Amino acid sequence: MTCSVFVGTSGFSYxxxxxxxxxxxxxKSADMLQxxxxxxxxxxxxxxxxxxxxxxxVERMLSRLEKPLYFTAKLxxxxxxxxxxxxxxxxxxxxxGIKPLLExxxxxxxxxxxxAAFHRTQANRYYLSxxxxxxxxxxxxxxxxxxxxxxxxxxxxxxxxxxxxVTVDTxxxxxxFPCLDVVTNPKLFYIRLHGRNSQGWYSGTMQQQFNYLYSxxxxxxxxxxxxxxxxxxxxxxVIFFNNHVAGQAVHNxxxxxxxxxx
Length: 262
Known about the structure:
- It is a single chain.
- The chain is an alpha/beta fold.
- The chain has a single domain (4-261), classed as TIM Barrel (Alpha-Beta Barrel), CATH 3.20.20.
- Helix content is 37%, strand content 16%.
- The strands form two sheets. Strands 2-3-4-5-6 form a five-stranded parallel β-sheet. Strands 1-9-8-7 form a four-stranded parallel β-sheet, with helices on one face.
- Helix 7 (122-134) links the parallel strand 4 (107-113) and strand 5 (140-143).
- Helix 10 crosses helix 11.
- The longest helix is centred in the C-terminal third of the chain and has 16 residues, at 216-231.
- The two termini are 19 Å apart.
């Protein structure tokens, strides 16, 4: 199977990336996505986790791009981290707001990322099933942070729905979801590399949690152990570096691209 692989970063609008030379001096936030599109062919949108995505904003974002760019987008936190009785309404709003990316054939996946506190309980399994039903018109990828979800029944359920199980690279800490090369959707694999900063992982600040630079040896081992296996079983894949501190994600992403090209 021939597999197209796209590499990028989680988020793009980081003021510190100007300071560290990723963007030119004086770059404004409104110009960052256009500059990013010159670096990588795909972006994982983070802002859609913090606030509900709106159709007008997405259309405006697309109109500013001078070259094609693929997208994935996080599901809003009101459906993953701060769940309440209004989640069905939130799901409907999200489906409507993300439509311009679907219509432009630019949306590769919606990332449904759950926190470590989201355990595999009967109630959470019930919620997850109904959430997937509400988002059935979207291409979905789910990321678990709790190891209780590492279960064959979970993989089988995702496979039945053609939902991608996200492969995560995190610090080797207890009860975190393991790094796996399990394929539940042969149309897409989805990898997120968060860094391996064990001391900063539970610090409560992203600047410490994601402050990590992968070595070339670590990336090569990850490629040989996980990436090659996923490539052989999928027709397309995305890889995002989330170690955004000081632009480290950009440096690691560029290195991995060179490795893949070789």
